[in-house]
Amino acid sequence: MGCKMEKVVLVLLFVLPLALADLRVGFYSSACPQAESIVRQVVQKRFGTDRSITAALLRMHFHDCFVRGCDASILIDSTTKKPSEKSAGPNFSVRGFDLIDEAKKSLEAACPSTVSCADIVTLATRDSVLLAGGPSYDVPTGRRDGLVSNPNEVNLPGPTLSVSEAEQVFAPKGFTLTEMVTLLGAHSVGVAHCSLFQDRLSDFQGTGAPDPTMDSSLVAKLKGICGNSKSNDPTAFLDQRTPFALDNQFYRQIMQREGVMQIDQELAVDKSSAGIVSQFASDANGFKKSFASVMVKLGSVQVLTGNAGEIRRNCRVFNQPK
């Protein structure tokens, strides 16, 4: 039995990497040498007028990769006859699709039917991370676009999960606890709607009182944002000090009980993750290196390569048979 199991393990170790064999840095160097520079220029242009685009692209990339893998299925538009992932609740506030459209239009003009929408999302996210002060890193390309986009498959980690519950979502995708804590460092940029944390401000878990793990001055500040706005569901920065910079300030803040969303604060409170948070809080370069590594790994989740899937001509719709 032991020998048989060992053979199975060896076979798995040999076979699994083959799925990623066609992903490589510089995949388009011959077929479309200007591909990465075209995407970079589009991102730079947008970042110049909207620094929040980094958070938007990080969210889009994560929401795409965690459903069917990084196959651009999140980009497909819903129709009256067939809903797509965009119609799932967690994706209602995902944005930045027009940026992907702009990059795709330029790429189709330069290299028709060559660069996948999945690679555009991955490259655009990488470029936006650097512009926000995050790490510079190379990403392998060669992804293909998926042929399915089903809203019923959208099952993403919510903001009220405990660390152990969140682990149960990340582990099947191949991420360790440290990598999960690293990925959640993306909350160093971006905002959250008040509806996602409102209960922490006044009636945490039905207690009729604020979440005791949240700093009282932050509670007061967020009450002002959420309670006095004319918006139906206003937003607050997840990082209250450097909201447009992808840095390790997020970890310092949650150590000071200044996490806006419950899952963020849980990272600093839970014994299993508190040490990781402390390490990142004191080591800015260490966090950047870890973030670069985990973003490359995220972009490799369940990718389609070779002859699988397709190269969409329009990122919002599947190709029609010629």
Descriptive keywords:
iron; Peroxidase; 2 domains; Peroxidase, domain 1; Peroxidase_pln; 322 residues; Peroxidase, domain 2; secreted; Peroxidases_AS
Can you describe what's shown?
With 322 residues, the protein is mostly helical. The protein folds into two domains: 23-153, Orthogonal Bundle (Peroxidase, domain 1), CATH 1.10.520; 163-298, Peroxidase, domain 2. The chain is 45% helix and 2% strand. The chain is built from 13 helices and two strands; from the N terminus they run H-H-H-H-H-H-H-E-H-H-E-H-H-H-H. A two-stranded antiparallel ribbon has the order 1-2. Helix 2 packs antiparallel against helix 4. It catalyses: 2 a phenolic donor + H2O2 = 2 a phenolic radical donor + 2 H2O. Belongs to the peroxidase family. Ascorbate peroxidase subfamily. Belongs to the peroxidase family. Classical plant (class III) peroxidase subfamily. Keywords: Calcium, Disulfide bond, Heme, Hydrogen peroxide, Iron, Metal-binding, Oxidoreductase, Peroxidase, Secreted, Signal.
Radius of gyration over alpha carbons? Answer: 20 Å
Strand order of the largest sheet: 1-2
> What is the number of beta strands?
2
**How far is the first residue's CA from the last residue's CA?**
52 Å
Corresponding CATH superfamily of the largest domain: Peroxidase, domain 2
What ranges have pLDDT less than 50 throughout 5 or more consecutive residues?
A: 1-20
